[in-house]
Amino acid sequence: MFEYMQLRNSCRSTIKSYTNMVAAYARHIGKSPDLSDWEAVRAYMLLTQMREYWRIYRPAVFLFERSVSGGPLSVRTAQAIFQHAKAASGIQKKVSAHT
Q1: 87 phi and psi angles, rounded to 5 deg
Q2: E strand or H helix at 46, and its extent?
Q3: Torsions phi, psi of 82, nearest 5?
Q4: Is residue 37 within 8 Å of residue 55, measured between CB atoms?
Q5: What is the per-residue pLDDT across 41-50, written as a single tens digit (0 to 9) for each?
Q6: pTM above 0.70, yes or no
Q7: Does 55 score more than 90 pLDDT?
Q8: How far is CA 48 from CA 1, 21, 53, in A?
């Protein structure tokens, strides 16, 4: 991996950052990243993103709170967020938040 990144002319800080992320992932799953599947990678990425979200916003009661009242998001707001993410990702299939 290190040699491949050098061949691609990656800078030292990029190589160090990438190897640190791979090492953290390997510690998390308890085995070599070569032995994991994509589902484990996606789960780990989601976990790190959720930890970052928690670190920044520190929600008091609900994970995703209304910005004004601190209460839960409305169903319509969650649906709108989902539809926006669907459109941004380019998904063409008919899907919902439950599929």
Answers
A1: -65, -40
A2: helix 38-57
A3: -60, -45
A4: no
A5: 889 999 999 9
A6: no
A7: yes
A8: 22, 11, 9
